Amino acid sequence: MRASRNAGLALAALIALPVVIGAAYATFAAVGLVGAGARGATSAALGDVLTDVAMWRGLGWSLWIAAASTVGATAIAVSVAVTFRGARTSDRVGRALAIVPLPVPHVVAGLLGVQLLGQSGWIARVAHASGVVGAPADMPALVYDPYGAGLILTMIWKETPFLAVVAIALLHTRGAAAEEAAHTLGASRLRTLQWVTIPLVLRGLLPAVIAVFVFVFGNFEVAALLAPSDPLALPLLIEERALDPDLTRRAGAYVTALVALAAAALAVAVHAHYSGRWSAEHS
Amino acid sequence: MTRRRRRSVLEAVRICAIVPSTGRAVVRAFVPMLAALLVGCGEERPSGRGISAGAAESAAEVAALPWDSVIARAHGTTVVWRMWRGDPSINRYIDEWVAPRLRDRFAVTLRAVDGQGPEIVNQLVVEREAGRGTGTASLVWINGETFANLRQERLLGGPWADKLPNARYVDSSSQIIMRDFEQDLAGYESPWGTVQFALIHDTVRTPNPPRTFAALSEWILAHPGRFTHDQGFTGMTFLKMLMYAEGGGVQRFAGGFDSTAYVAGRARVLAWLGRTRGAFWREGTTYPPDVAAMHRLFANGEIDFSMSNNQHDVVTKVRQGILPPTSRPLLLRDGTIANAHYVGIPANAPNPAGAMLVANFLLSPEAQLEKRRPDVWADGTVLAPSRLPDVWAARFAAIERDPREIPRDSLARYAVPEVAPAYHERLSADWRARIRTAP
């Protein structure tokens, strides 16, 4: 028993190791001790990045994209799980259709987003052909747009299946007993849905929701295809600085990466804190 | 207690979910570092296999040997070449034309791996920090800022390039080939190809395109929403040409970075953009990320001009079906930037002899001719036809001329050279801060 626990700990440590080493390296690089263009300890990059408007706008924008995509995908995933929970053929078809995008790589999803949602995309062409808009360019801009509408739609489409799979499994394994208890106590179907089923799914889904939030926040390839140049999404800003021909700017990439890491870690920590409180309340 | 410990394990696993969020750039920096650390711990010898006794020698030492000895040392070895792998036509030329010939004639295995410009610099810095004697790549495809960075960080081996037997064919009278962004090659890189910037237009949509920056400005104002440039290297090259044109010609900026000249040139660029930017695509509030996105917008009819650092790009892209068949390259008469690209040997190259053999083969008339073919890559040659044996000079002259190509004499007439890399760096940084992130 003890041996297996130690093995588990070692495995967990091994998984965490690249993050720890990476964060340590980034910290050293951020203060000019290692990396290309390093010229000895300095807080110059720290000051530059933390006072850089583009960085804060990028951070805020990436958080907005992550939050909107996560809320959208979660809402659809829970609706799918609740609506198609039965054993009828239509239920099975509904569940199957909702997880179709699961195997699609993110970069392919991004390209689909460009082809479909661009001002010269398929939707714009259909709208033009059917007379809804005068010219394709009159379509509202959904790609490279300041609100990231195309990016959010693409991310919702791509992340919904993952959350739906988890939500369907949760409802299947945990749903029936609690709902029957509610019924027995006289709750109506709507009340049961509102007070038992949806909270149950949401709470169980939360780790997956946090994972999606953190993933979307840090996603590079879809943002590179669909995001505007201003504000520049944080992962794109990191890439741009890491590849800046001026070597003295490289340290700024590491500072920005550490800010991104801190934001993602904060999301995980908030979740860990509240899930700890919940499990304490319910055990 | 146990519960807390279990929590901490879970926590560690959860934190790992953050890894993708740190961005591709950081992963790019960390992965080679970890790999270098792990390999460095595991074994003393470099990981490259089939490296001959020449492994410990530097490029400069190998260059001092007679060429026969270089060939002998390269025999049976592998050369890892770090290069941009983003274009299928270039990859096909390397993997299916160059590599088999090197294997058959010299028993050298060529392995091209991905990595361009700043990534090459980052990789070599990481290898140096990992404390390994030899690195992974023996050859790198570079120019401009990358060459400057690598020289500044002392990460290139040399001099060696002038010792290549085929170096005698190189057009050494060309300032575009013999000066890399005004830098002396000093034998630390060997010329490989030349390109020249061109706008791309569609003869159906714009039969009479503007041919100067002044005319372009008028055209943009008369056709709002139909012009933009990208945020990458090509877009910045466009702005640098604008700086030459509006700022009194390239000679104002030649001869090393001059802060006063730059500030004056920048003011002219900002003034031109101030007049026209409101009529750019999306009112100049957002810019396509790269040339691929520019080509897509152009092909889909959202904008009327694309652009490329390679004047022959339109030839290959039309053949690939990416651009419409009626696309044509367009040179602005104010001057369009021409530059050359090169191969270098890292200071920690495991196989400098093999790298020199590959570099020499790349300079051979047959390899340069194949690369120049419109259906292969259409990359300009660095060889001077007048220095070649007659039979090869005739073959270069006979290459099928695509109707979409710009004649050689027009290219030469409007070609302007690159200036010191600092101009490009400063202009990029200022464009990002003052135009892209406009309040």
Structure, described:
Chain A is an all-alpha fold and 283 residues long. Chain A has one domain: MetI-like (MetI-like fold, Orthogonal Bundle), CATH 1.10.3720.10. In chain A, 74% of the residues lie in helices and 0% in strands. Chain A is built from eleven helices and no strands. The longest helix of chain A is centred in the middle third of the chain and has 36 residues, at 149-184. In chain A, 42% of the residues are buried. By secondary structure, chain B is α/β, with parallel strands linked by helices. Chain B has 18 helices and eleven strands.
The gyration radius over C-alpha positions of chain A equals: 23 Å
What is the beta-strand fraction of chain A?
under 5%
Total beta strand runs of chain B: 11
Low-confidence stretches of chain B: 1-55
SSE succession of chain B? HHHHEHEHEHHEEEEHHHHEHEEHHHHEH
What's the rounded overall pLDDT mean of chain B?
86
- Mind summarizing the main beta sheet of chain A? none
- Globally, the shape of chain B reads globular
Measured distance between first and last alpha carbons of chain A: 24 Å
CATH superfamily of the largest domain in chain B: Periplasmic binding protein-like II
* Uncertain runs of chain A: none
Mean of pLDDT of chain A:
89
* Largest sheet, strands/sense/barrel of chain B: 6 strands, mixed
CATH architecture of the largest domain in chain B: 3-Layer(aba) Sandwich
Count of alpha/pi helices of chain A: 11
Number of helices of chain B: 18
Descriptors:
heterodimer; A: 283 residues; mainly alpha; MetI-like fold; 11 helices; flat; B: 439 residues; alpha/beta; D-Maltodextrin-Binding Protein, domain 2; six-stranded mixed beta sheet; three-stranded antiparallel beta sheet; 18 helices; 11 strands; globular
